[in-house]
Amino acid sequence: MGYQVLARKYRPQRFADVAGQDHVTRTLLNALAQNRMAHGYIFSGHRGIGKTTIARILAMALNCRSAVGSAERPTPEPCGQCDSCTEIRIGSAVDVIEIDAATNRGIDEIRELRDAARYSPARDRYKIYILDEAHQITEAAFNALLKTLEEPPAHVIFMMATTEPENIPQTIRSRCQHFSFHAVRFDDILAQLRMIAAEEQVQAEDAALALLAEAGDGSMRDALSIMDQAIASAPLQDGRPVLAATQIRELMGSVPNAVFERLLEAVAAGQSATLMEELNVLLNAGHSPSSLARQMVRYLRNTLMAKLGGEQTELLQISSDERARAARTAMLFTEEDLTRNLQIVLRTFDDLNYRQEQRFHLELGLLKLIHAQRLLPLEELLSGVASGAGLRGAAATSSPAPRPASSAPRAFPSAVAAPATPPKPAAPSLSPFADSASVSAPPAPTAIATPTPASALATQGNTPVSKLKETPVEVAAAPARAIAPFPVAADSTPGFAEALTEGSLAKAPEAAPAVNPAAGAVDTDTLRQAVVQALSTAGHASAAQLLGVATWKQDGSTLRMEAPGMGKKMLSLTVNAAAEKIIRQELQRLGASTRFMVVPGEGSGPVPAAAAAPLAGSVQQAALDNPLVQRARDIFKADVRSVVDLRTK
């Protein structure tokens, strides 16, 4: 006999040998033991996972001549030694008819099958029909089989294997027992490949076998076919084939995942030139853009699963080394970033299928990943719009006035003011506590705390003079009161900045102390001060306030921030993805570990009063004094955590 491929040579002959389908084999073994066999079965699922194999094993068990409980057959498993088992295994059994429904799909073939089914089996107990690719049978042919399948002779059993069970009519499915097969797990395929490599005396690296198992994509037959091809192309050492990971990648035309890790590192760092250089090397090496996009989709999917479930999650069907690689990449992005990146690359992969200049479209798709990193979350965008409207109103109505002295220092200052201009009539207020018949509106704010650094302009007439930098500044001639995101008070911070004359910035606040990473670990107080300052400057006042009163602990290589009196839901809304990115960047700048956790602290009460007290005379205080707000607090038993001023001037 000539060479037999691995998929046929190591085809399971017993239920116990089938990998990954325990829910099917257990049910069938119990049915055999209890003599509860149905007259029709549908086996559906992915290609190469054992549908036809289990149908043949079931046929062997039904027609096995050895009695259950005998020495040859102690269990309902087929003995594999009698004439019936041997003939079914080699495909020459008279009473087990295997039909390729893809070529015998018409009504004439089904009529012949129906007529032949009336006769008793020639030798065995049952006459068994195995219809492979049963979804290919026409609707008329199914209708011709319908009555026979509903009330078949006692000696006939139908078994239908299909990859598309939805194409089988419901009238047929309702008359059969339907078993849905699962894709074979990565670990099961890997164990089978190790066993076969030992049987075939093949020296194989674990990384090479892992690549073969991953390439199988849940199909045992696909993995064995690729392994057969790899053994044929492998070099010999002492007369034995040697399988290496590099050889497998060359055979499949794939790229090491380390390359995609470098690509996504360039994306996270915003290095467009580095990204294009890496891609140019891959394309010049002969890798097709479509193949690169497909592999990057798979790598991004694994990275997202590592972000969601951790390195050891069951969602990852890859080797331990690749799990660690995906976890490292996941630390560079938020869950929203990875979801958006995966969507961009999927759309790029779809575009490559019908575009002629595939290289250009792949380059454009990867550049979109970098540009997407600069997108602002919707909450931050809306916050910036509200702040910008207030800033314009303040610039139009403010008049120079001496800045009131204050002795109470505030934790997170962030104030901007504009030179005096002629006043304009106020626009209708959009806030729930202004222009009410029963409540007098608070005085118009003239100094605004802005959450958007480098976006506000100090103007002289209509000419932009200077943009604000990422550190907040104050005005020499500030108005009488400043409005800031709750509970920040920008007008009472002593020594925060010197002066802003018309058309120039006099002095910026002191930067956070420089930290030399080589000098040792950075103390948590320095980290807290720098992170809170960065959050406040970027407009995340609530996150800055929360982390300002949080307990900071160094837990090994992880910085742990315990926020008091904050639930998980509110914590995730306050310290959102944009705030996490700012914290990570600030920790990197200080040379500290970028691994951190923001978790709820002990207790379930409200945020401490020292952190939550609003500034007297501020818009927050005006909102809390409003009878409508007080009534709402009494009705809903709620607490007001933050107030946003939506008024326009």
Describe the protein in words.
The structure is a single chain. This protein is an alpha/beta fold. It folds into four domains: 6-180, Rossmann fold, CATH 3.40.50.300; 186-252, Helicase, Ruva Protein, domain 3, CATH 1.10.8.60; 257-372, Zinc Finger, Delta Prime, domain 3 (Up-down Bundle); 517-634, no CATH class. The chain has helices spanning 6-9, 22-34, 51-63, 83-90, 107-116, 139-150, 170-173, 186-199, 206-216, 220-233, 245-252, 257-269, 272-284, 289-309, 320-330, 335-352, 358-372, 378-397, 524-537, 541-548, 568-574, 577-589, 609-612, 619-625, 627-636, and strands spanning 40-44, 96-100, 127-132, 156-162, 177-180, 203-204, 236-237, 240-243, 447-448, 457-460, 463-467, 482-483, 551-555, 558-563, 596-600. A five-stranded parallel β-sheet has the order 2-3-4-1-5, with helices on one face. A three-stranded mixed β-sheet has the order 6-8-7. Strands 13-14-15 form a three-stranded mixed β-sheet, covered by helices on one side. Helix 9 (206-216) crosses helix 10 (220-233) and helix 19 (524-537) packs antiparallel against helix 20 (541-548).
Element layout with pairings:
Elements: H1 6-9, H2 22-34, E1 40-44, H3 51-63, H4 83-90, E2 96-100, H5 107-116, E3 127-132, H6 139-150, E4 156-162, H7 170-173, E5 177-180, H8 186-199, E6 203-204, H9 206-216, H10 220-233, E7 236-237, E8 240-243, H11 245-252, H12 257-269, H13 272-284, H14 289-309, H15 320-330, H16 335-352, H17 358-372, H18 378-397, E9 447-448, E10 457-460, E11 463-467, E12 482-483, H19 524-537, H20 541-548, E13 551-555, E14 558-563, H21 568-574, H22 577-589, E15 596-600, H23 609-612, H24 619-625, H25 627-636
Parallel strand pairs: 1-4, 1-5, 2-3, 3-4, 6-8, 9-12, 14-15
Antiparallel strand pairs: 7-8, 10-11, 13-14
Helix pairs in contact: 3-4, 5-6, 8-9, 9-10, 9-11, 12-13, 12-15, 12-17, 13-17, 14-15, 14-16, 16-17, 19-20, 19-22
